[in-house]
């Protein structure tokens, strides 16, 4: 790739980045700003370059200029321009897509299949689709949830979807914790009288713990 | 005349400074254009001389675009010295009227502020 093309690509990348921060400005205003910036870059290059600009020179020029995100602040502070609307973060959406598969797989394991022996077609389909997705679901959902929380916190208002991200991050860990607590309770209180009542109390306590875990996580996620 | 910031502004002061810059930036840009046709880079360099205003290209170019959109400034694409063509900004007739009004208002405001600061409150 020629030097000129590389230089031009750098300039276009910078202009594209600035464009992304120009919010709800009209196309005419945005184009005007970008043309001015282009003129600025050309002016700086004309000042420092002898003939065609080198990659090092364009990088020097771009480094001396305001970063693209400063146009969002500059424009909104000085011109009463609203920043672009927040968009939904993609990580919580991916997590939410995987979330039900673990539940479906768990349900399939506990629902009896009517009819005689032999594997039906839908069971074959389920084995090779829902089963692997169900195994992956707890990991993908949880990881995407935490990644979503981190991305939204760092986006400075450009990304939204915190409630879904927190749901993804907590869903499986909380369910697994509840399951472990329930199994522990069953083991501890085996053979004890009024087992059903005790288990009912244990479930209520679990729900209370779930509530406090969720509240703690939410507060940590939205804390500035 | 240059104004030098001598103390570091607290957060509330920064808000006040931002609001002040908001009003002054257009005023200063119009006054520079009132002195003659100028291109964007040149306007930025002139405004950068104002210490305390924190003016860089990301504050000036949106203002220039807004002035053009509102009809106070116009653009002429002209040659540069050996480089790509330049975009020269100049005031339109309504731009000149606007800056004349702003200057008149600024002069009377300046006098009032001077009086208040000197304690002439009668």
Can you describe this structure?
The complex is a heterodimer of chains A (224) and B (122). Chain A is mostly helical and 224 residues long. Chain A has 9 helices and 2 strands. Chain B is mainly alpha-helical. Helix content of chain B is 59%, strand content 11%. Chain B has helices spanning 11-34, 40-48, 57-69, 93-118, and strands at 38-39, 73-78, 86-91. A 3-stranded antiparallel β-sheet of chain B has the order 1-3-2. In chain B, β2 and β3 (86-91) form a beta hairpin. Chain B is globular. The model of chain B has no long low-confidence stretch (mean pLDDT 84). Chain A binds chain B through residues 25-26, 28-30, 32-33, 35-37, 39-40, 42-46, 65-66, 70-71, 73-75, 77-79, 81, and chain B through 18, 21-22, 25, 39-41, 44, 56-66, 68-69, 80-84, 86-87.
Would you kindly provide a brief summary of this structure?
The complex is a heterodimer of chains A (224) and B (122). Chain A has helices at residues 3-20, 27-48, 55-64, 70-79, 90-110, 121-128, 130-154, 162-188, 195-222; strands at residues 87-88, 159-160. Chain A has 224 residues and is mostly helical.
């Amino acid at each position: 790739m020629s030097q000129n093309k590389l230089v031009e690509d750098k300039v276009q990348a910078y202009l594209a980045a600035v464009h992304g921060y120009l919010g709800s400005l009209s196309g005419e205003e945005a184009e005007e700003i970008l043309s001015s910036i282009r003129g600025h870059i050309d002016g700086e290059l004309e000042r420092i370059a002898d003939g065609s600009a080198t990659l090092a020179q364009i990088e020097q020029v771009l480094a001396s200029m305001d970063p693209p995100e400063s146009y969002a602040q500059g424009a909104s502070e000085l011109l009463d321009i609203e920043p672009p609307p927040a968009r939904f973060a993609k990580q919580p959406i991916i997590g939410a897509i995987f979330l039900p598969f673990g539940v479906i797989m768990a349900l399939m394991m506990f629902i009896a299949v009517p009819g005689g022996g032999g594997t039906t077609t839908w069971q074959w389909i389920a084995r090779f689709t829902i089963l692997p997705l169900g195994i992956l679901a707890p990991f993908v959902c949880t990881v995407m949830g935490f990644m979503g929380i981190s991305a939204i916190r760092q986006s400075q208002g450009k990304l939204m979807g915190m409630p879904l991200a927190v749901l993804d991050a907590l869903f499986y860990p909380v369910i697994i914790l509840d399951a472990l607590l329930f199994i522990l309770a069953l083991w501890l209180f085996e053979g004890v009288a009024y087992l059903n009542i005790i288990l009912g109390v244990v479930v209520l306590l679990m729900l209370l713990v779930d509530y406090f875990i969720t509240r703690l996580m939410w507060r940590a996620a939205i804390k500035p | 005349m240059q104004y030098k910031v001598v103390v570091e502004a607290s957060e509330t002061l920064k808000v006040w400074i931002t609001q002040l810059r908001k009003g002054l930036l257009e005023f200063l840009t119009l006054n520079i254009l009132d002195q003659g046709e100028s291109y964007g880079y040149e306007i930025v360099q002139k405004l950068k001389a104002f210490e305390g205003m924190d003016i860089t290209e990301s504050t000036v170019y949106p203002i220039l675009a807004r002035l053009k959109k509102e009809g106070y400034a116009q653009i002429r694409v002209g040659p540069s010295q050996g480089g790509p063509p330049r975009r020269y900004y100049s005031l339109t007739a309504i731009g000149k009227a606007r800056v004349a009004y702003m200057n008149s208002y600024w002069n009377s405001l300046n006098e009032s502020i001077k009086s208040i600061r000197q304690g002439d409150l009668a």
